[in-house]
Amino acid sequence: ATVIVLLTTSSIYGVSFVMPIGGADMPVVISLFNALTGLAVAFEGYAIGNTAMIVAGTVVGSAGTLLTLLMAKAMNRSLANVLFSGFGQDHGAQIESGGEMKEIDATDVSVMMAYADQVVIVPGYGMAVAQAQHKVWEMAKLLKSRGVSVKFAIHPVAGRMPGHMNVLLAEAGVPYDDIFDMEDINPEFGKTQVSLVIGANDVVNPAARDDPSSEIYGMPILDVDESDNVIVIKRGRGAGFSGIENRLFFGDNTRMLFGDAQAMAGELIASLKEL
Fold first, then answer.
1. Among 2, 109, 257, 271, which has the minimal tally of Cβ within 10 Å of its Cβ?
2. Neighbouring C-alpha atoms within 13 Å toward the C-beta of 170
3. Active site residue 105
4. Is 155 exposed, middle or buried (0-12, 13-18, 19+ CB in 10 A)?
């Protein structure tokens, strides 16, 4: 009976703890729970006198804690603010776009990129879901063969965990020298003819930079809106992980290429080969 009461109480506490947290904060909380899991294993090892469990649990707990703090820092917020501010809740507020999404087809995008001096590719969770990294790298190699400078821009919390995009690009064979962190690539957008955003949303939302009323205001972003042209590959018209509408999608220099990231990358490859 005691075990049942303990499990029930802990389950209610866990749900109550997580419910106020949502949107873009959730990966931080998941990382924190991973850290707490490690600490629980370490305490269990201490209770039963198992040194291996103590060491393994401590390593997992410390690594998870460090990752949690780094993720919160990447969002320019404290861990306490993430856990107790209620950020990410749906309050019914949406950014006023003041425009409409403008669509483009793969052929026009391929021409635009083929004759650009520099193309910056911004991968996001949508690329991961579609497992499009190999197609994206194939497309990048085609552009490089035409003399186009191609760079990959990585936001610290792109995907669901720090390093998520780096791992996917490394798996596809993208050279490390072609991958740039946010601090290094942001100055490049002003001299970039085409920025290709593949399944990323909140990490390129200009509202985080210049709209104090936005719930993600203050979070560092990739300044893709400073490029001459922005192409966004996206499955549909929905909001991002934080549930906030992205004003970038309605910009004068932004065009939307709707569809699965892998399928769209395949169409771009086919169009580039025909040029």
1. 2
2. 8
3. no
4. buried
Query: Which one-letter amino acid corresponds to residue 224?
Result: V
242, 88 contact by CB (below 8 A): yes
User: Cα separation of 36 and 79, whole Å?
Assistant: 14
Share of the chain above pLDDT 90, in %: 55
Residues β-bridged to residue 230? 195, 254
Alpha carbon distance 206, 16 (integer Å): 32
Partnered with residue 150 across adjacent β-strands are 119
Among residues 178, 184, 202, 252, the one annotated as catalytic is 202
Give the integer Cα–Cα distance in Å for 266 and 86: 41
Asked if residue 240 lies in contact with residue 246, where contact means CB atoms within 8 angstroms, the answer is: yes
What confidence tens digit (pLDDT) does each residue in 189-215 have? 999 999 999 988 888 999 888 888 777
- 10 Å CB burial of residue 25 (0-12, 13-18, 19+) is buried
